[in-house]
Design goal:
Length: about 600
Protein backbone atom coordinates (compact mmCIF):
# COMPACT_ATOMS: atom_id res chain seq x y z
CA UNK A 1 0.00 0.00 0.00
CA UNK A 2 1.36 3.40 -0.97
CA UNK A 3 1.93 5.83 1.89
CA UNK A 4 0.88 9.49 1.87
CA UNK A 5 4.51 10.56 1.59
CA UNK A 6 5.05 8.39 -1.48
CA UNK A 7 1.84 9.68 -3.09
CA UNK A 8 2.99 13.24 -2.51
CA UNK A 9 6.34 12.47 -4.11
CA UNK A 10 4.76 10.68 -7.08
CA UNK A 11 2.39 13.59 -7.72
CA UNK A 12 5.13 16.22 -7.39
CA UNK A 13 5.94 18.43 -10.42
CA UNK A 14 9.35 16.79 -10.80
CA UNK A 15 7.84 13.31 -10.86
CA UNK A 16 5.19 14.30 -13.38
CA UNK A 17 7.84 15.91 -15.53
CA UNK A 18 9.98 12.79 -15.74
CA UNK A 19 7.30 10.12 -15.76
CA UNK A 20 4.57 11.50 -18.00
CA UNK A 21 5.02 13.61 -21.08
CA UNK A 22 2.32 16.30 -21.39
CA UNK A 23 0.37 16.63 -24.61
CA UNK A 24 1.44 20.26 -25.09
CA UNK A 25 4.58 22.28 -24.61
CA UNK A 26 5.45 23.60 -21.19
CA UNK A 27 4.00 27.05 -20.61
CA UNK A 28 5.75 27.83 -17.33
CA UNK A 29 9.29 27.28 -16.08
CA UNK A 30 9.43 26.83 -12.28
CA UNK A 31 10.69 29.79 -10.30
CA UNK A 32 14.29 29.35 -9.13
CA UNK A 33 14.87 28.63 -5.44
CA UNK A 34 17.97 30.74 -4.90
CA UNK A 35 18.43 29.64 -1.30
CA UNK A 36 19.48 26.20 -2.62
CA UNK A 37 22.05 27.62 -5.07
CA UNK A 38 25.09 26.39 -3.10
CA UNK A 39 25.81 23.73 -0.47
CA UNK A 40 26.79 26.35 2.10
CA UNK A 41 23.87 25.64 4.40
CA UNK A 42 23.99 22.72 6.83
CA UNK A 43 20.53 21.57 5.74
CA UNK A 44 20.37 21.58 1.92
CA UNK A 45 16.83 20.86 0.74
CA UNK A 46 15.75 19.98 4.26
CA UNK A 47 13.45 21.92 6.58
CA UNK A 48 13.85 19.64 9.57
CA UNK A 49 16.82 17.90 11.22
CA UNK A 50 17.79 14.58 9.65
CA UNK A 51 19.38 11.76 11.54
CA UNK A 52 22.90 10.83 10.44
CA UNK A 53 23.45 8.19 13.09
CA UNK A 54 25.51 5.31 11.84
CA UNK A 55 26.90 7.28 8.91
CA UNK A 56 30.64 7.79 8.83
CA UNK A 57 31.91 11.34 8.61
CA UNK A 58 33.05 12.63 5.24
CA UNK A 59 36.84 12.57 5.47
CA UNK A 60 37.72 12.02 1.83
CA UNK A 61 35.20 12.20 -0.97
CA UNK A 62 37.14 9.78 -3.12
CA UNK A 63 37.66 7.34 -0.28
CA UNK A 64 34.01 7.15 0.68
CA UNK A 65 32.93 5.37 -2.49
CA UNK A 66 33.91 1.74 -2.16
CA UNK A 67 32.76 -1.35 -3.96
CA UNK A 68 30.62 -3.60 -1.77
CA UNK A 69 30.37 -7.32 -1.93
CA UNK A 70 33.32 -9.62 -2.51
CA UNK A 71 31.96 -12.29 -0.17
CA UNK A 72 31.36 -15.84 -1.40
CA UNK A 73 27.96 -16.09 -3.04
CA UNK A 74 27.32 -12.35 -2.82
CA UNK A 75 27.41 -10.51 -6.13
CA UNK A 76 29.54 -7.43 -6.19
CA UNK A 77 27.55 -4.21 -6.09
CA UNK A 78 28.86 -1.41 -8.32
CA UNK A 79 30.31 1.43 -6.26
CA UNK A 80 28.12 4.04 -7.93
CA UNK A 81 24.85 2.50 -6.69
CA UNK A 82 25.02 4.22 -3.30
CA UNK A 83 25.49 7.72 -4.70
CA UNK A 84 24.83 10.33 -3.39
CA UNK A 85 24.43 9.02 0.16
CA UNK A 86 27.65 6.98 0.02
CA UNK A 87 29.79 10.05 -0.66
CA UNK A 88 27.65 12.72 0.98
CA UNK A 89 25.96 11.44 4.16
CA UNK A 90 23.87 14.59 4.59
CA UNK A 91 22.07 13.82 1.32
CA UNK A 92 19.61 11.34 2.76
CA UNK A 93 16.58 9.93 0.98
CA UNK A 94 14.40 12.71 2.36
CA UNK A 95 16.76 15.40 1.07
CA UNK A 96 17.12 13.82 -2.36
CA UNK A 97 13.35 13.41 -2.50
CA UNK A 98 12.68 17.08 -1.84
CA UNK A 99 15.39 18.23 -4.25
CA UNK A 100 14.02 16.16 -7.12
CA UNK A 101 17.10 13.93 -7.42
CA UNK A 102 15.24 10.89 -6.10
CA UNK A 103 12.92 10.98 -9.11
CA UNK A 104 15.95 10.87 -11.38
CA UNK A 105 17.55 8.07 -9.39
CA UNK A 106 14.45 5.93 -9.88
CA UNK A 107 14.13 6.79 -13.56
CA UNK A 108 15.14 4.25 -16.20
CA UNK A 109 17.00 5.18 -19.40
CA UNK A 110 14.69 6.51 -22.11
CA UNK A 111 15.02 6.80 -25.86
CA UNK A 112 16.35 10.34 -25.42
CA UNK A 113 19.04 9.41 -22.90
CA UNK A 114 22.43 9.96 -24.51
CA UNK A 115 25.95 10.96 -23.52
CA UNK A 116 27.80 12.99 -26.17
CA UNK A 117 31.50 13.42 -25.54
CA UNK A 118 34.63 14.79 -27.15
CA UNK A 119 38.31 15.28 -26.35
CA UNK A 120 40.40 18.43 -26.58
CA UNK A 121 43.98 17.56 -27.50
CA UNK A 122 47.18 19.40 -26.67
CA UNK A 123 47.50 20.25 -30.35
CA UNK A 124 44.26 22.26 -30.20
CA UNK A 125 42.19 19.73 -32.12
CA UNK A 126 38.71 18.66 -31.03
CA UNK A 127 38.00 14.95 -31.50
CA UNK A 128 34.46 13.64 -31.16
CA UNK A 129 34.05 10.30 -29.40
CA UNK A 130 31.26 7.72 -29.87
CA UNK A 131 27.88 8.60 -28.42
CA UNK A 132 26.51 6.37 -25.66
CA UNK A 133 22.80 5.79 -26.20
CA UNK A 134 20.21 4.47 -23.78
CA UNK A 135 21.03 0.83 -24.44
CA UNK A 136 24.76 1.40 -23.93
CA UNK A 137 24.73 3.17 -20.58
CA UNK A 138 25.57 -0.09 -18.78
CA UNK A 139 29.13 0.06 -20.08
CA UNK A 140 29.47 3.76 -19.21
CA UNK A 141 31.09 2.98 -15.86
CA UNK A 142 33.83 0.98 -17.52
CA UNK A 143 34.42 3.71 -20.10
CA UNK A 144 34.70 6.32 -17.37
CA UNK A 145 37.23 4.22 -15.51
CA UNK A 146 39.52 3.57 -18.48
CA UNK A 147 42.87 5.30 -18.54
CA UNK A 148 43.06 8.21 -20.94
CA UNK A 149 45.55 8.51 -23.72
CA UNK A 150 48.40 10.96 -23.52
CA UNK A 151 47.94 14.37 -25.06
CA UNK A 152 44.35 14.97 -23.89
CA UNK A 153 43.79 18.42 -22.41
CA UNK A 154 40.14 17.96 -21.50
CA UNK A 155 37.33 15.45 -21.91
CA UNK A 156 33.82 16.89 -22.22
CA UNK A 157 30.57 15.05 -21.53
CA UNK A 158 27.19 16.42 -22.63
CA UNK A 159 24.43 14.46 -20.89
CA UNK A 160 20.97 14.58 -22.42
CA UNK A 161 17.84 13.46 -20.57
CA UNK A 162 19.78 12.06 -17.63
CA UNK A 163 18.55 8.91 -15.89
CA UNK A 164 19.35 7.48 -12.47
CA UNK A 165 22.25 5.20 -13.41
CA UNK A 166 23.98 7.86 -15.53
CA UNK A 167 23.65 10.43 -12.75
CA UNK A 168 25.12 8.06 -10.18
CA UNK A 169 27.99 6.99 -12.43
CA UNK A 170 29.15 10.53 -13.14
CA UNK A 171 28.57 11.67 -9.58
CA UNK A 172 30.50 8.74 -8.10
CA UNK A 173 33.36 8.73 -10.64
CA UNK A 174 34.12 12.46 -10.48
CA UNK A 175 32.89 13.17 -6.92
CA UNK A 176 30.30 15.67 -8.05
CA UNK A 177 28.34 17.54 -5.38
CA UNK A 178 24.66 16.47 -5.60
CA UNK A 179 23.57 20.10 -5.51
CA UNK A 180 24.89 20.42 -9.08
CA UNK A 181 22.21 18.01 -10.28
CA UNK A 182 19.51 19.58 -8.09
CA UNK A 183 20.40 23.06 -9.36
CA UNK A 184 20.35 21.87 -12.98
CA UNK A 185 17.00 20.07 -12.88
CA UNK A 186 15.35 22.91 -10.91
CA UNK A 187 16.89 25.77 -12.88
CA UNK A 188 18.64 27.36 -9.89
CA UNK A 189 21.46 29.84 -10.68
CA UNK A 190 24.63 28.74 -8.90
CA UNK A 191 28.34 29.59 -8.78
CA UNK A 192 30.52 27.47 -6.55
CA UNK A 193 34.19 26.59 -6.21
CA UNK A 194 35.22 23.57 -4.17
CA UNK A 195 38.66 22.37 -3.18
CA UNK A 196 38.51 18.60 -3.33
CA UNK A 197 41.76 18.04 -1.49
CA UNK A 198 43.95 20.69 0.08
CA UNK A 199 47.08 18.80 -0.91
CA UNK A 200 46.07 18.44 -4.56
CA UNK A 201 46.44 21.10 -7.22
CA UNK A 202 42.93 20.74 -8.64
CA UNK A 203 39.46 21.84 -7.67
CA UNK A 204 35.84 21.75 -8.85
CA UNK A 205 33.89 24.62 -10.42
CA UNK A 206 30.10 24.55 -10.70
CA UNK A 207 28.14 27.11 -12.72
CA UNK A 208 24.41 27.04 -13.41
CA UNK A 209 23.55 30.02 -15.58
CA UNK A 210 20.06 30.85 -16.94
CA UNK A 211 19.92 32.82 -20.16
CA UNK A 212 17.42 33.75 -22.88
CA UNK A 213 17.24 32.10 -26.28
CA UNK A 214 15.11 33.02 -29.30
CA UNK A 215 13.30 30.33 -31.31
CA UNK A 216 10.77 30.46 -34.12
CA UNK A 217 7.22 30.79 -32.91
CA UNK A 218 6.24 27.84 -35.09
CA UNK A 219 8.45 25.62 -32.89
CA UNK A 220 6.62 26.64 -29.77
CA UNK A 221 3.00 25.52 -29.73
CA UNK A 222 1.08 25.77 -26.48
CA UNK A 223 -2.49 25.45 -25.42
CA UNK A 224 -2.71 29.24 -25.45
CA UNK A 225 -3.18 29.05 -29.23
CA UNK A 226 -6.68 27.75 -28.64
CA UNK A 227 -7.62 30.75 -26.48
CA UNK A 228 -9.63 33.68 -27.73
CA UNK A 229 -7.43 36.53 -28.90
CA UNK A 230 -9.49 39.04 -26.95
CA UNK A 231 -8.83 37.30 -23.63
CA UNK A 232 -5.73 38.20 -21.66
CA UNK A 233 -4.33 36.92 -18.43
CA UNK A 234 -4.61 39.26 -15.46
CA UNK A 235 -1.09 38.38 -14.31
CA UNK A 236 2.01 38.64 -16.50
CA UNK A 237 3.98 35.44 -15.92
CA UNK A 238 7.66 36.24 -16.32
CA UNK A 239 8.63 32.56 -16.30
CA UNK A 240 6.52 31.86 -19.37
CA UNK A 241 7.95 32.19 -22.89
CA UNK A 242 7.53 35.62 -24.43
CA UNK A 243 5.85 35.49 -27.83
CA UNK A 244 6.82 38.46 -29.99
CA UNK A 245 5.18 40.02 -33.01
CA UNK A 246 8.35 39.34 -35.02
CA UNK A 247 7.45 35.60 -35.22
CA UNK A 248 9.98 34.82 -32.48
CA UNK A 249 9.53 33.40 -29.00
CA UNK A 250 11.99 34.10 -26.18
CA UNK A 251 12.57 31.08 -23.94
CA UNK A 252 14.49 30.68 -20.71
CA UNK A 253 17.44 28.37 -21.32
CA UNK A 254 20.17 27.34 -18.90
CA UNK A 255 23.80 26.33 -18.87
CA UNK A 256 24.57 23.72 -16.19
CA UNK A 257 28.28 22.84 -16.17
CA UNK A 258 30.59 21.15 -13.70
CA UNK A 259 34.34 21.39 -14.35
CA UNK A 260 36.80 19.04 -12.65
CA UNK A 261 40.17 20.81 -12.79
CA UNK A 262 42.19 17.80 -11.76
CA UNK A 263 45.58 17.70 -13.54
CA UNK A 264 45.30 13.92 -13.82
CA UNK A 265 41.63 13.78 -14.85
CA UNK A 266 40.39 17.10 -16.33
CA UNK A 267 36.69 16.65 -17.10
CA UNK A 268 33.79 18.88 -18.03
CA UNK A 269 30.17 17.78 -17.51
CA UNK A 270 27.12 19.61 -18.84
CA UNK A 271 23.58 18.58 -17.99
CA UNK A 272 20.61 19.05 -20.33
CA UNK A 273 17.48 17.68 -18.60
CA UNK A 274 14.37 17.35 -20.76
CA UNK A 275 15.60 19.68 -23.49
CA UNK A 276 12.86 18.53 -25.89
CA UNK A 277 10.18 19.36 -23.36
CA UNK A 278 11.50 22.80 -22.37
CA UNK A 279 12.91 23.54 -25.86
CA UNK A 280 16.28 24.31 -24.28
CA UNK A 281 19.70 23.59 -25.75
CA UNK A 282 20.11 19.85 -26.16
CA UNK A 283 23.26 17.87 -25.44
CA UNK A 284 23.76 17.18 -29.14
CA UNK A 285 23.46 20.86 -30.05
CA UNK A 286 25.91 21.87 -27.34
CA UNK A 287 28.42 19.26 -28.48
CA UNK A 288 28.08 20.52 -32.05
CA UNK A 289 28.62 24.12 -30.94
CA UNK A 290 31.81 23.19 -29.09
CA UNK A 291 33.10 21.27 -32.12
CA UNK A 292 32.42 24.30 -34.32
CA UNK A 293 34.39 26.50 -31.93
CA UNK A 294 37.27 24.01 -31.98
CA UNK A 295 37.45 24.15 -35.76
CA UNK A 296 37.93 27.91 -35.69
CA UNK A 297 41.38 29.43 -35.98
CA UNK A 298 40.95 31.70 -32.96
CA UNK A 299 40.16 29.05 -30.37
CA UNK A 300 42.54 26.57 -31.97
CA UNK A 301 45.39 29.01 -31.34
CA UNK A 302 44.31 29.48 -27.72
CA UNK A 303 44.21 25.72 -27.05
CA UNK A 304 47.65 25.35 -28.59
CA UNK A 305 49.04 28.07 -26.31
CA UNK A 306 47.56 26.71 -23.09
CA UNK A 307 46.26 23.45 -21.64
CA UNK A 308 44.04 25.09 -19.03
CA UNK A 309 40.61 23.38 -19.17
CA UNK A 310 38.99 26.52 -17.74
CA UNK A 311 38.90 28.01 -21.24
CA UNK A 312 36.14 25.55 -22.11
CA UNK A 313 33.91 27.46 -19.69
CA UNK A 314 34.50 30.56 -21.78
CA UNK A 315 33.47 28.66 -24.92
CA UNK A 316 30.18 27.77 -23.24
CA UNK A 317 29.77 31.37 -22.07
CA UNK A 318 30.06 32.48 -25.69
CA UNK A 319 27.20 30.13 -26.53
CA UNK A 320 25.03 31.90 -23.96
CA UNK A 321 26.23 35.27 -25.27
CA UNK A 322 25.22 34.40 -28.85
CA UNK A 323 21.79 33.35 -27.58
CA UNK A 324 21.43 36.65 -25.71
CA UNK A 325 22.45 38.61 -28.80
CA UNK A 326 19.92 36.83 -31.01
CA UNK A 327 17.22 37.39 -28.40
CA UNK A 328 17.96 41.11 -28.21
CA UNK A 329 17.78 41.37 -32.01
CA UNK A 330 14.39 39.64 -32.05
CA UNK A 331 13.20 41.83 -29.19
CA UNK A 332 14.36 44.99 -30.95
CA UNK A 333 12.55 44.01 -34.15
CA UNK A 334 9.39 43.36 -32.15
CA UNK A 335 9.64 46.77 -30.48
CA UNK A 336 10.05 48.43 -33.90
CA UNK A 337 6.92 46.66 -35.13
CA UNK A 338 5.00 47.77 -32.05
CA UNK A 339 6.20 51.35 -32.53
CA UNK A 340 4.95 51.35 -36.12
CA UNK A 341 1.58 50.08 -34.94
CA UNK A 342 1.56 52.69 -32.18
CA UNK A 343 2.10 55.48 -34.73
CA UNK A 344 -0.58 54.08 -37.01
CA UNK A 345 -3.83 55.98 -36.46
CA UNK A 346 -5.96 52.94 -37.14
CA UNK A 347 -4.12 50.53 -34.80
CA UNK A 348 -3.08 52.82 -31.95
CA UNK A 349 -6.22 52.06 -29.97
CA UNK A 350 -5.96 48.28 -30.22
CA UNK A 351 -5.41 46.53 -26.91
CA UNK A 352 -3.03 43.99 -28.48
CA UNK A 353 -0.33 46.64 -28.98
CA UNK A 354 -0.49 47.87 -25.39
CA UNK A 355 -0.63 44.35 -23.98
CA UNK A 356 2.44 43.24 -25.95
CA UNK A 357 4.44 46.30 -24.90
CA UNK A 358 3.56 45.70 -21.25
CA UNK A 359 4.71 42.08 -21.57
CA UNK A 360 7.98 43.19 -23.14
CA UNK A 361 8.60 45.75 -20.41
CA UNK A 362 7.97 43.17 -17.70
CA UNK A 363 10.31 40.70 -19.43
CA UNK A 364 13.03 43.35 -19.61
CA UNK A 365 12.89 43.68 -15.83
CA UNK A 366 13.58 39.94 -15.56
CA UNK A 367 16.36 40.13 -18.16
CA UNK A 368 18.09 42.81 -16.11
CA UNK A 369 18.70 40.32 -13.30
CA UNK A 370 19.72 37.56 -15.70
CA UNK A 371 22.34 39.79 -17.35
CA UNK A 372 23.74 40.74 -13.97
CA UNK A 373 23.98 37.05 -13.13
CA UNK A 374 25.76 36.49 -16.45
CA UNK A 375 28.25 39.25 -15.65
CA UNK A 376 28.89 37.84 -12.17
CA UNK A 377 29.49 34.34 -13.59
CA UNK A 378 32.25 35.63 -15.88
CA UNK A 379 33.82 37.53 -13.00
CA UNK A 380 33.61 34.32 -10.96
CA UNK A 381 35.68 32.49 -13.59
CA UNK A 382 38.19 35.33 -13.69
CA UNK A 383 38.57 35.47 -9.91
CA UNK A 384 39.14 31.70 -9.56
CA UNK A 385 42.01 30.68 -11.84
CA UNK A 386 43.18 27.12 -12.17
CA UNK A 387 45.58 26.30 -9.31
CA UNK A 388 47.58 24.04 -11.62
CA UNK A 389 48.35 27.02 -13.90
CA UNK A 390 49.03 29.59 -11.21
CA UNK A 391 52.64 29.99 -12.39
CA UNK A 392 51.74 30.12 -16.08
CA UNK A 393 51.72 33.85 -16.83
CA UNK A 394 50.74 33.35 -20.47
CA UNK A 395 47.69 31.33 -19.51
CA UNK A 396 46.67 33.93 -16.94
CA UNK A 397 47.07 36.70 -19.50
CA UNK A 398 44.91 34.85 -22.00
CA UNK A 399 42.26 34.21 -19.37
CA UNK A 400 42.14 37.88 -18.37
CA UNK A 401 41.90 38.98 -21.99
CA UNK A 402 39.09 36.59 -22.91
CA UNK A 403 37.11 37.38 -19.77
CA UNK A 404 37.44 41.09 -20.49
CA UNK A 405 36.06 40.49 -23.98
CA UNK A 406 33.08 38.67 -22.52
CA UNK A 407 32.48 41.33 -19.88
CA UNK A 408 32.48 44.04 -22.55
CA UNK A 409 29.95 42.08 -24.59
CA UNK A 410 27.71 41.59 -21.57
CA UNK A 411 27.91 45.33 -20.86
CA UNK A 412 26.85 45.95 -24.46
CA UNK A 413 23.89 43.63 -23.95
CA UNK A 414 22.93 45.55 -20.82
CA UNK A 415 23.05 48.82 -22.78
CA UNK A 416 20.90 47.26 -25.49
CA UNK A 417 18.44 46.09 -22.87
CA UNK A 418 18.27 49.60 -21.36
CA UNK A 419 17.72 51.10 -24.81
CA UNK A 420 14.92 48.62 -25.52
CA UNK A 421 13.30 49.43 -22.19
CA UNK A 422 13.39 53.16 -22.94
CA UNK A 423 11.91 52.61 -26.40
CA UNK A 424 9.10 50.54 -24.91
CA UNK A 425 8.33 53.29 -22.41
CA UNK A 426 8.40 55.88 -25.20
CA UNK A 427 6.03 53.75 -27.28
CA UNK A 428 3.62 53.38 -24.36
CA UNK A 429 3.80 57.11 -23.67
CA UNK A 430 3.12 57.80 -27.36
CA UNK A 431 0.06 55.54 -27.27
CA UNK A 432 -1.35 57.22 -24.16
CA UNK A 433 -0.73 60.72 -25.52
CA UNK A 434 -2.23 59.83 -28.89
CA UNK A 435 -5.33 58.44 -27.22
CA UNK A 436 -5.58 61.58 -25.07
CA UNK A 437 -5.43 63.82 -28.13
CA UNK A 438 -7.96 61.60 -29.88
CA UNK A 439 -10.34 61.79 -26.92
CA UNK A 440 -9.95 65.58 -26.82
CA UNK A 441 -10.77 65.87 -30.51
CA UNK A 442 -13.74 63.55 -30.03
CA UNK A 443 -15.02 65.68 -27.16
CA UNK A 444 -14.64 68.83 -29.23
CA UNK A 445 -16.48 67.27 -32.16
CA UNK A 446 -19.24 66.10 -29.83
CA UNK A 447 -19.51 69.62 -28.41
CA UNK A 448 -19.80 71.03 -31.91
CA UNK A 449 -22.53 68.52 -32.74
CA UNK A 450 -24.38 69.43 -29.55
CA UNK A 451 -24.14 73.09 -30.48
CA UNK A 452 -25.59 72.42 -33.92
CA UNK A 453 -28.43 70.45 -32.36
CA UNK A 454 -29.10 73.39 -30.06
CA UNK A 455 -29.25 75.73 -33.03
CA UNK A 456 -31.67 73.42 -34.80
CA UNK A 457 -33.80 73.19 -31.68
CA UNK A 458 -33.86 76.98 -31.44
CA UNK A 459 -34.93 77.25 -35.07
CA UNK A 460 -37.70 74.69 -34.75
CA UNK A 461 -38.88 75.88 -31.33
CA UNK A 462 -41.31 78.58 -32.61
CA UNK A 463 -42.93 76.24 -35.15
CA UNK A 464 -43.18 73.57 -32.50
CA UNK A 465 -44.80 76.03 -30.12
CA UNK A 466 -47.25 77.13 -32.77
CA UNK A 467 -48.07 73.51 -33.65
CA UNK A 468 -48.60 72.74 -29.99
CA UNK A 469 -50.88 75.72 -29.52
CA UNK A 470 -52.97 74.87 -32.54
CA UNK A 471 -53.14 71.27 -31.44
CA UNK A 472 -54.66 72.14 -28.05
CA UNK A 473 -58.05 70.73 -27.25
CA UNK A 474 -59.94 74.01 -26.68
CA UNK A 475 -63.11 75.31 -28.27
CA UNK A 476 -61.50 78.36 -29.83
CA UNK A 477 -59.32 76.11 -31.98
CA UNK A 478 -61.39 72.97 -32.22
CA UNK A 479 -65.15 72.85 -32.66
CA UNK A 480 -65.64 69.31 -31.37
CA UNK A 481 -64.51 69.95 -27.77
CA UNK A 482 -65.93 71.46 -24.59
CA UNK A 483 -62.70 72.93 -23.19
CA UNK A 484 -62.30 76.72 -23.18
CA UNK A 485 -59.30 79.03 -23.31
CA UNK A 486 -60.07 80.31 -19.80
CA UNK A 487 -59.81 76.83 -18.36
CA UNK A 488 -56.49 76.24 -20.15
CA UNK A 489 -55.04 79.52 -18.85
CA UNK A 490 -56.39 78.89 -15.37
CA UNK A 491 -54.48 75.62 -15.17
CA UNK A 492 -51.28 76.42 -17.09
CA UNK A 493 -50.47 79.90 -15.77
CA UNK A 494 -50.32 78.89 -12.06
CA UNK A 495 -48.10 75.93 -12.96
CA UNK A 496 -45.78 78.21 -14.94
CA UNK A 497 -45.62 80.71 -12.07
CA UNK A 498 -44.92 78.04 -9.44
CA UNK A 499 -42.23 76.41 -11.61
CA UNK A 500 -40.55 79.76 -12.27
CA UNK A 501 -40.80 80.64 -8.57
CA UNK A 502 -39.16 77.39 -7.43
CA UNK A 503 -36.41 77.58 -10.06
CA UNK A 504 -35.33 81.08 -9.00
CA UNK A 505 -35.53 80.15 -5.32
CA UNK A 506 -33.34 77.10 -5.89
CA UNK A 507 -30.86 79.19 -7.87
CA UNK A 508 -30.62 81.72 -5.04
CA UNK A 509 -30.17 78.90 -2.53
CA UNK A 510 -27.26 77.48 -4.53
CA UNK A 511 -25.55 80.89 -4.55
CA UNK A 512 -26.28 81.49 -0.84
CA UNK A 513 -26.23 78.04 0.85
CA UNK A 514 -26.10 79.55 4.36
CA UNK A 515 -29.55 81.12 3.94
CA UNK A 516 -32.43 78.73 4.68
CA UNK A 517 -34.40 77.57 1.68
CA UNK A 518 -37.75 78.66 3.08
CA UNK A 519 -36.30 82.18 3.34
CA UNK A 520 -35.35 82.04 -0.33
CA UNK A 521 -38.93 81.18 -1.22
CA UNK A 522 -39.89 84.73 -0.24
CA UNK A 523 -37.72 86.26 -2.94
CA UNK A 524 -40.62 87.91 -4.82
CA UNK A 525 -41.68 89.88 -1.74
CA UNK A 526 -38.12 90.92 -0.86
CA UNK A 527 -37.43 92.01 -4.41
CA UNK A 528 -40.72 93.89 -4.47
CA UNK A 529 -39.88 95.64 -1.20
CA UNK A 530 -36.49 96.68 -2.51
CA UNK A 531 -38.02 98.03 -5.68
CA UNK A 532 -40.71 99.99 -3.81
CA UNK A 533 -38.19 101.54 -1.45
CA UNK A 534 -36.05 102.58 -4.39
CA UNK A 535 -39.01 104.14 -6.18
CA UNK A 536 -40.14 106.17 -3.12
CA UNK A 537 -36.77 107.90 -2.67
CA UNK A 538 -36.32 111.26 -4.33
CA UNK A 539 -33.97 111.33 -7.25
CA UNK A 540 -30.54 112.74 -6.43
CA UNK A 541 -28.69 114.88 -8.96
CA UNK A 542 -25.18 113.84 -10.02
CA UNK A 543 -23.58 116.94 -8.46
CA UNK A 544 -25.26 116.34 -5.12
CA UNK A 545 -24.28 112.66 -5.23
CA UNK A 546 -20.67 113.67 -5.87
CA UNK A 547 -20.76 116.22 -3.08
CA UNK A 548 -22.09 113.62 -0.67
CA UNK A 549 -19.23 111.32 -1.62
CA UNK A 550 -16.66 114.03 -0.94
CA UNK A 551 -18.22 114.88 2.41
CA UNK A 552 -18.25 111.23 3.37
CA UNK A 553 -14.56 110.87 2.57
CA UNK A 554 -13.67 114.03 4.54
CA UNK A 555 -15.73 112.82 7.44
CA UNK A 556 -13.87 109.54 7.52
CA UNK A 557 -10.54 111.40 7.38
CA UNK A 558 -11.52 113.85 10.17
CA UNK A 559 -12.76 110.92 12.18
CA UNK A 560 -9.37 109.26 11.92
CA UNK A 561 -7.65 112.56 12.93
CA UNK A 562 -9.98 113.00 15.91
CA UNK A 563 -9.35 109.43 17.00
CA UNK A 564 -5.60 110.06 16.82
CA UNK A 565 -5.86 113.25 18.91
CA UNK A 566 -8.05 111.54 21.47
CA UNK A 567 -5.55 108.69 21.66
CA UNK A 568 -2.73 111.14 22.33
CA UNK A 569 -4.71 112.94 25.04
CA UNK A 570 -5.60 109.66 26.70
CA UNK A 571 -1.92 108.69 26.58
CA UNK A 572 -0.71 111.90 28.24
CA UNK A 573 -3.39 111.61 30.88
CA UNK A 574 -2.32 108.05 31.59
CA UNK A 575 1.33 109.11 31.89
CA UNK A 576 0.43 111.96 34.29
CA UNK A 577 -1.59 109.59 36.44
CA UNK A 578 1.33 107.17 36.64
CA UNK A 579 3.76 109.98 37.62
CA UNK A 580 1.37 111.16 40.33
CA UNK A 581 1.18 107.65 41.74
CA UNK A 582 4.98 107.41 41.81
CA UNK A 583 5.34 110.76 43.64
CA UNK A 584 2.72 109.78 46.19
CA UNK A 585 4.43 106.46 46.81
CA UNK A 586 7.81 108.14 47.35
CA UNK A 587 6.27 110.64 49.74
CA UNK A 588 4.73 107.88 51.79
CA UNK A 589 7.94 105.79 51.84
CA UNK A 590 10.99 108.08 51.47
CA UNK A 591 14.26 106.48 50.42
CA UNK A 592 16.99 105.69 53.00
CA UNK A 593 19.33 108.36 51.63
CA UNK A 594 16.82 111.16 52.06
CA UNK A 595 16.11 110.05 55.65
CA UNK A 596 19.83 110.14 56.57
CA UNK A 597 20.30 113.58 55.02
CA UNK A 598 17.32 115.00 56.87
CA UNK A 599 18.58 113.62 60.23
CA UNK A 600 22.05 115.14 59.72
CA UNK A 601 20.53 118.51 58.94
CA UNK A 602 18.58 118.46 62.19
CA UNK A 603 21.73 117.62 64.21
CA UNK A 604 23.65 120.48 62.61
CA UNK A 605 20.96 122.93 63.43
Amino acid sequence: MTSDHELQRINSPEALLYTKRPAVRAEHIPVALHRFAAPSGPWPWSSRPTSTAGVSSLLSRKGNIKANGGLPGVPEIPPWVGYPGSAFPNWTVDVTDRSGIQVLLERKPSSETAVHNLDVLHSGQFVKRPVLRNSEVDRLWDDLGQAREDGITLRCFFIGDVCGSVLQMFGARYSVEPFFFSSAINGIPARYKEDVDEGAAGDHLTITLPFVRAVDSTMYQTSSDAKDDTEYELVIDLQSPLELSSDKTLLLDQLAVHLVRDPELPTLITLHPKSDFWLTTSAEDMCTRVLMAGKGVYWGRIWRDTNDPTFMLLVLMWHALYAWDESMDALFDSILTSEKRAMNREEVGEIEVTHELHNVRSALLLYNGLLKNFYNSIEFILKHPNPAFAEDSKSQELMSRECEHLLLEVSRLQDTKDMCQQRVENALDLIFRTLTVRDTKTSQSQGWVTQQITYLTTIFLPPTFIATVFGMNISILSSDTTGTLKEYLAISLPLIVVTFWLMLALNRHLREPDTPFYHQLAWPFRDLHTAVVGWTKKPVSPLRRRARGIVTKLGKKNRRVDETERTKLRGWALIQDQLADIVAAEAANPPLTSVVISSQAKQTS
